[in-house]
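To whoever is covering the structure queue this week,

Two jobs came back overnight. Logging them here so there's a record in the thread.

Job A:
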Amino acid sequence: MEFEHIFDDLEITTDPFAVCELRGACDLGLGRDASATLHYILAGEGEIRLRSQAPLKVSRGTLVLIPALQSHALHSFGVSGDPVPDCKPAAINLARLMATAECGDKGQLIALCAHVDVGLRGVADIIDLIREPLVENVSSPSSMRSALQALLYEISNPGLGSRAMIRALLTQCMIEMLRRRLAVADNALHWMAALADQTVWSALRTMLDKPGDRHTVESLADSVSMSRAAFAKRFADAYGSGPMELLRDLRMRRAGALLRDTDLPVKRIAEMVGFTSRSAFSRTFEAKTGQPPRAFRMSLQEN
């Protein structure tokens, strides 16, 4: 399938927010974020632990994209690796998140963390179509390996324009990750096939633009002039799941962003994402994130 025109239309932005440093064999909980989160491992070995999923092994040069609302933690194996220069995140307005094992800092894992947004043809938040983590490892000379060296330099020798350079390098790595994962038909990118189908894209755009509307399979099928059965099959073939399953996920991710970015009451947020019952919304949100809405908002305020 040809994806070149899709890449031409993608609008990818990255916002680096922290450098995470784990000294010794230890964990650093990162909780849930209302945005998709990108982790680039600058040094060390370890894994990213996710709720209800197998851990993802990471090492120097690993790039991992975690979908929104997925609770996760960084774990360092505490093994010694290639020495890296001292990071100076404060000089580029990045938080410094630390974890240290009681036994000391035998070895360390360092990760650059960023929020990611992806838009397409005027529609924001298509990053929310990603349902599984994406993982790419740099094991041979490549543009990503060159970017890793450049990132290390900017973080350890910050100067004029360093933050902008870090954003540009991370965006480059994000594009490289997408095309590499597409080249090996990664199931986590099944959704990009839906972008190439104009009929399915029209329905996706409707849900992305207005997740709080009272969509049904019938109404979405009508919007693209198809029968319910034909639309449901075409959508599932292109996207990998039914439209209502996707709509539920989009609503929860939009709710997470509203809980993070506003002080609106939970009841109002429930209405804005298509729920007539606050209790039904809270049950669905907790099933998705492991936390009720109020606890989720409080955890974001504590970070």
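Job B:
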Amino acid sequence: MDNKKELRNWLDDFGLPHPLVIAGPCSAETEDQVLNIAHQLKDSDATVFRAGIWKPRTRPGMFEGVGAIGLKWLQKAKEETGMLTATEVANPTHVQLAIEHDVDILWIGARSTVSPFIVQEIADSLQGTDKVVLVKNPVNPDLPLWLGAVERLHKADIKKLGVIHRGFSTYEKTKYRNIPEWQLPIELQNRFPDLPLICDPSHITGKRDMVFDVCQTALDLNYDGLMVETHFDPDNAWSDAAQQVTPATLIQIMQDLRIRKENDEAEEYNLKLGNLRAQIDVIDNQIIDTLGKRMRIADEIGGLKKKKNVAVLQSKRWNEILGKMILEGDERGLSEEFVLRIFKAIHQESINHQEKIINA
């Protein structure tokens, strides 16, 4: 993509603050619900009101949105509060209807981003538009696929582009609804630093009590904005009830977040240092998570050894692992001494786990 500086200009064009805050319900349910939430948010840090009109669901029979009637509610919320509006589009018909109802920001959802055909259809229908278009990451952790969607829109002469990080699906059960895989948006940000990057903590966490922590991590990583699902009665929301916060909670979250601003050389140094440290924090958490998974496998091995009355220490296997890891470490610039210390500690912890199982 050429002229990357142009991509960030829409933030300034709208006079939007940093960080940009997009908030509103997962789904528009009724006119009263939409207007109620919008009025509670109008004096908050949120300057963009979001609501899902069409909801792509995993299985048939689930609530799939109110449809086009909800666009009239968004229009009315905009007139009454002065907030910009945003919604998801998944096909050219959605695009046409959203534009007709003066929606300011359109986003392409994770399920649509996985299909170049769908993205191309949307790009063609948006050819040359002055609307802001945001692209959520695809469901699977595929950076080229995510960037490919952005490139299709850019080639359709859409100037006001940005991306939304909403996490990635996994077969593993974790504390997240969609694992962040922070290294992917970090890589995207490194390659395209002028492409606005927005975090969707609601879909990453799936739980409202984790939203603040993910918001803070995103800001520490120098994200440009947040998209937080907000409902006046989250527990009774028609979709994604567990991950929505109340407007009052959102206001408190924004007050509690540490927002770093770039003012001078010293502040720029602190900003960059904070960003790099945040990246280290992300990787450290991944290391701990991976070690936890490794020890759970060690527990299973301990159970098998107990059943077959096999000794815990298998020297041949251990030496094979150590030799392989020393070579792998060398390729990554890690000294043999460091690799030995790390893997001896891991091996000892694994032995402790297995002995505990066998002696139980």
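Note for Job B: The mean pLDDT is 90.

Please reply-all if you pick these up so we don't duplicate work.
Q.
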